[in-house]
Automatic annotation (TrEMBL):
UniProt domain Helix-turn-helix: residue ranges: 4-48
Protein name per Swiss-Prot or TrEMBL: Helix-turn-helix domain-containing protein
Comp. bias intervals (Basic and acidic residues): 337-351
Region described as Disordered: spans on this chain: 315-366
Source organism (scientific name): Nocardiopsis alba
Gene3D superfamilies: Vaccinia Virus protein VP39 (3.40.50.150)
SUPFAM superfamilies in the cross-refs: Putative DNA-binding domain (SSF46955), S-adenosyl-L-methionine-dependent methyltransferases (SSF53335)
Protein origin, superkingdom: Bacteria
């Protein structure tokens, strides 16, 4: 396979600045490979652009970002030459779309197009996503402070904020265990490259699992291999449950209630209402044949699903902005399933639920 060149390396033979070469890759003007958060050009592409610029012709006259020529791949696939299917990566992607709505930068033009249509259908979406940034930090911080073992369901693309495993390491030291779960290939590749591998190099107990939340039996079995489920654990789902149908959500909540120990906590963020946005997103996915959807729910409906499976003590954490609209759903709930409340505590339960230990000079999680 051709060598991979960074925009800085490609800029010299093209006679342009690094910023221009990087912008061409980011905007899809020149076909580039998207690996994690970085872009790379193939050597053949660089040579072709250099020749066409010398002759004054357009390098790729029929190329545009929506054509799916710019592909996402793992680093191993990029080096081995095993390219992922171009048509698949031309589809709207849930992780990239919500990264854009969350004011991130890991999105493509087709994702931004859908996000804009969602915002037009639900004018309050932009404001709710802005409030969600604060709500998410409150939920993640509360779960990481309460439990040394944390499960992040639907972790999505890494963002420029302190990850749960980093918070756990500060609070719990070597006792911290974190499991990230997703089944989106782009998200898995990015999380393994940016979170799992660096964390394991430093000695952190971090795992990334490729699992579909619509099949909770497989999820529960896999979690037992990496976590001690005989003691309470913390569960996170930030803008994840929105993508499950009602019966799928009920199955997931019930399956975890049956496997986790009483006292386990679940931190949740979820869009509140936004029926128009959900219809736009689901309709777009259906047109493309993508296996994804967005389900609109209200706080009371979501709480009833959890309470029916033994999750109680629902505590809302949604911050309200002065003059703002309806905030997103942000809450903490605790597993108090009656038929499991009589289970005796494990002798080493304190190892996972005691007060966090902080290194000397540490002030906690930002």
């Amino acid at each position: 396979m051709d060598d991979l060149l960074t925009p800085a390396q490609a800029a010299l033979p093209w006679g342009v600045s690094y910023a221009t070469a990087a912008r061409w890759a980011r905007e899809g003007t020149i076909p580039a490979l998207h690996v994690g958060r970085r872009y790379y050009y193939l050597q053949g592409t660089v040579d072709h652009v250099r020749r066409t610029r010398a002759t004054g012709t357009v390098p790729y006259p029929n190329h545009y970002a929506n054509a799916g020529v710019a592909m996402t791949m793992t680093w191993g696939a990029a080096r081995s030459g095993t390219l992922l299917d171009r048509e698949e990566w031309a589809l709207t992607n849930a992780a990239r779309t919500f990264d854009y709505l969350d004011y991130g930068k890991d999105s493509w033009s087709q994702d931004r197009h859908v996000a804009v249509k969602m915002a037009e259908a639900s004018p309050g979406l932009a404001g709710q996503m802005l409030v969600h940034r604060k709500a998410r930090e409150c939920v993640v911080d509360a779960v990481c402070r309460s439990f040394s073992q944390v499960i992040d369901l639907g972790c999505g693309l890494p963002a420029m904020r302190r990850a749960p495993h980093e918070r756990g390491r500060v609070l719990w030291g070597s006792r911290a265990r974190t499991v990230y779960v997703d089944h989106d290939l782009a998200a898995l590749a990015a999380v393994r490259a940016w979170w799992e591998h660096p964390a394991q190099v430093r000695g952190y107990n971090v795992r990334v699992l490729d699992l579909d939340l619509r099949y909770p039996e497989n999820l529960a079995s896999a979690l037992e291999e990496h976590l001690d489920l005989s003691v309470p654990v913390g569960v996170l789902s930030t803008l994840t449950l929105d993508h499950l149908q009602d019966e799928e959500l009920a199955g997931l909540v019930e399956a975890l209630a049956a496997r986790l120990a009483p006292g386990s906590g679940w931190g949740i963020t979820h869009l509140s209402g936004m029926v128009g946005a959900a219809e736009v997103y689901t309709g777009q996915a259906r047109e493309q044949g993508a296996d994804t959807r967005l389900v609109a729910r209200d706080p009371d409906g979501l709480r009833k699903v959890f309470e029916a499976s033994g999750w109680g003590r629902w505590r809302g954490l949604s911050p309200r902005e002065p003059g703002g609209g309806e905030p997103p759903i942000a809450a903490l709930t605790t597993l108090i399933r009656p038929d499991r409340a009589s289970r005796t505590a494990s002798p080493d339960r304190s190892e996972y639920t005691a007060s966090p230990v902080r290194p000397a000079g540490s002030t906690g999680v930002d």
